[in-house]
Amino acid sequence: MRTRAVLTDEDIVTMGDAAVAHARTNQWNVTIAIVDDGGHLLWLRRLDGASPGTAEMATSKARTAALGRRESKIYEDVIRQGRTAFLSAPLTAMLEGGVPIVVNGDVIGAIGVSGVKSDQDAVVARAGIAALGVE
């Protein structure tokens, strides 16, 4: 029988705190969402000044990364290159800012961020994941 890592409450708090710290250091008003491998919301934090719509977008970016098993930016790039059929995929936020959490080759969740430029959103997500010492 194969075993695999899962996100714990401690992992979620560690990643969330690191992502918040990174966003605050850069004075980025964002929302950060952490989901499990099934795209279910585990943690959400909307920083002061982040617009209300960022809460839904961050969650959707995280779900896209978790369910798609890859960064949400990949979908954005594929669509931008002309493969518009991807717009019918059952993923709701095919924009940069969703990053999967990968441990030993398994996607165990994802972090999605919304509120600044998409590449900056992804940087905040990666800062959270880096706090786990994986990927």
TrEMBL record:
InterPro entries: GlcG_carb_metab_protein, PduO/GlcC-like, PduO/GlcC-like_sf. SUPFAM superfamilies: GlcG-like. It comes from the Bacteria. PANTHER family: PROTEIN GLCG, SLR1406 PROTEIN. This is Heme-binding protein. It comes from Paraburkholderia dinghuensis.
